[in-house]
């Protein structure tokens, strides 16, 4: 399989053939991945932050199998079905946003949100902040960081939007004043403000003060601009609150969800909006072939039901405390710039970009799977990680110590 993979498969953010090793997984159970060579690794990534309940969960397996025996898929144009309707009702109840568009992936959810804003307002510029990441499709790429983001190669082909600086970790009145000035100066051409609430994910695992999110909500209201919250990475408890917006006590006009929506089982996303947005848009010009897929909707419904039943807030609180405790020593490593923790997110930021293969070699020797990038060695483990969290933090600390001086 490894030889065939190397010959044919193009992996994300990788060249052909891949420059580093690609490991064949034969089974996933609980919080562990079993490789084809028999090694077991604790998954500190939740499969890019999606598998919050762990792998091979009997409730989610059953939901998928039961739905497959009834109906795997049916077009959503002019037809509907119970799993999608129930899921939309659950999401509306959880978020306070009553209108739900079921999309294929997080990037598509962002594209749909942008279309909603453009159709409603008749304007075609967005306001956002540096350091953000919203997906790999063209509309989403255009609101990612235009200089330091991973999409700078496409800058000439992307729409030009309005960017403020990256929001500071602590509240700074001067930065808030600049937000005021920039939004006021461009309000006449802005359809919406789009941000990741409180945590900027793939743009650098940066945490910022919730007061800035409150200020953006106030500015959107003052100038008649929509607020889009990209909760694809922050939704469903990852930051310690059910949604990132809850840290600031605000509700957006449009919200994007994905990743953990199905518990890591299938690709599914959702774009939710207020009644006012839905009525103003009218006919939304978007319609994925696999929109509202019954299998994905059924497993998403089971995952959200499981989330409501489990003590996720206490679990995430224990993970946060364990990450703070377990990563404390890494701060003294000579190559480390910063160590930070929020909810079930633990980050070691280094002074220089890390050698991904070298870091993975260290953590895999400790029985852990991580996927570092740029200057970040980080973890977003499943909520069910339990005592295996200590193994993750030990592996991360060992990787940080192996970096050498800055």
TrEMBL record:
One of its GO terms (cellular component) is cytoplasm. The modification N6-(pyridoxal phosphate)lysine is found at residue 259. Substrate binds at residues 48, 133, 259, 287, 371. Its EC number is 2.6.1.62. Pyridoxal 5'-phosphate binds at residues 106-107, 230, 288-289. InterPro entries: Aminotrans_3, Aminotrans_3_PPA_site, BioA, PyrdxlP-dep_Trfase, PyrdxlP-dep_Trfase_major, PyrdxlP-dep_Trfase_small. CDD domains: OAT_like. The keyword Repeat does not apply. It is found in: Cytoplasm. It catalyses: (8S)-8-amino-7-oxononanoate + S-adenosyl-L-methionine = S-adenosyl-4-methylsulfanyl-2-oxobutanoate + (7R,8S)-7,8-diammoniononanoate. The keyword Phosphoprotein does not apply. Its cofactor is pyridoxal 5'-phosphate. The record marks 13 as: Participates in the substrate recognition with KAPA and in a stacking interaction with the adenine ring of SAM. PROSITE patterns: AA_TRANSFER_CLASS_3 (PS00600). Keywords: Aminotransferase, Biotin biosynthesis, Cytoplasm, Pyridoxal phosphate, S-adenosyl-L-methionine, Transferase. It comes from the Bacteria. Catalyzes the transfer of the alpha-amino group from S-adenosyl-L-methionine (SAM) to 7-keto-8-aminopelargonic acid (KAPA) to form 7,8-diaminopelargonic acid (DAPA). It is the only aminotransferase known to utilize SAM as an amino donor. NCBIfam families: bioA, PRK05964.1. Belongs to the class-III pyridoxal-phosphate-dependent aminotransferase family. BioA subfamily. Homodimer. This is Adenosylmethionine-8-amino-7-oxononanoate aminotransferase. It comes from Streptosporangium roseum (strain ATCC 12428 / DSM 43021 / JCM 3005 / KCTC 9067 / NCIMB 10171 / NRRL 2505 / NI 9100). The gene is bioA.
């Amino acid at each position: 399989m490894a030889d065939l993979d190397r010959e044919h498969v193009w992996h994300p953010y990788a060249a052909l053939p891949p420059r580093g090793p690609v490991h064949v997984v034969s089974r996933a159970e609980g919080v562990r991945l079993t490789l084809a060579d028999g090694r077991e690794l604790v998954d500190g990534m939740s499969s890019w932050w999606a598998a919050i309940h762990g792998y091979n969960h009997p409730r989610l397996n059953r939901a998928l199998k039961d739905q497959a025996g009834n109906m795997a898929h049916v077009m959503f144009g002019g037809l509907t079905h119970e799993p999608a309707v129930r899921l939309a009702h659950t999401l509306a109840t959880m978020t306070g946003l009553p209108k739900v568009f079921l999309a294929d992936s997080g990037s598509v959810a962002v594209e749909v949100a942008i279309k909603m804003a453009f159709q409603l307002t008749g304007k075609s510029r967005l306001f956002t902040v540096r350091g953000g990441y919203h997906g790999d499709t063209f509309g989403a790429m255009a609101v990612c960081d235009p200089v330091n983001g991973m999409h700078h190669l496409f800058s000439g082909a992307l729409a030009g939007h309005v960017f403020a600086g990256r929001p500071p970790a602590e509240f700074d009145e001067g930065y808030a004043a600049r937000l005021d000035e920039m939004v006021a100066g461009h309000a006449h051409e802005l359809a919406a403000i789009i941000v990741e609430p409180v945590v900027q994910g793939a743009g650098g695992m940066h945490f910022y003060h919730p007061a800035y999110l409150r200020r953006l909500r106030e500015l959107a209201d003052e100038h008649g601009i929509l607020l889009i919250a990209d909760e694809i990475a922050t939704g469903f408890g990852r930051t310690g609150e059910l949604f990132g917006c809850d840290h600031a006590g605000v509700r957006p006009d449009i919200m994007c969800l994905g990743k953990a929506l199905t518990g890591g089982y299938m690709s599914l996303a959702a774009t939710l909006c207020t009644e006012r947005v839905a009525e103003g848009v009218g006919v939304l010009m978007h319609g994925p072939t696999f929109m509202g897929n019954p299998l994905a909707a059924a497993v998403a419904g089971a995952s959200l039901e499981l989330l409501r039943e489990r003590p996720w807030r206490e679990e995430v609180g224990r993970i946060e405390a364990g990450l703070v405790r377990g990563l404390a020593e890494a701060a003294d490593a000579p190559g480390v710039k910063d160590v930070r923790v929020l909810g079930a997110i633990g980050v070691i930021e280094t002074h220089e970009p890390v050698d991904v293969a070298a870091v993975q070699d260290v953590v895999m020797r400790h029985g852990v799977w991580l996927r570092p990038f740029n200057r970040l060695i980080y973890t977003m483990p499943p909520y069910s990680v339990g005592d295996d969290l200590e193994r993750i933090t030990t592996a991360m600390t060992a990787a940080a110590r192996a970096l050498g001086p800055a």
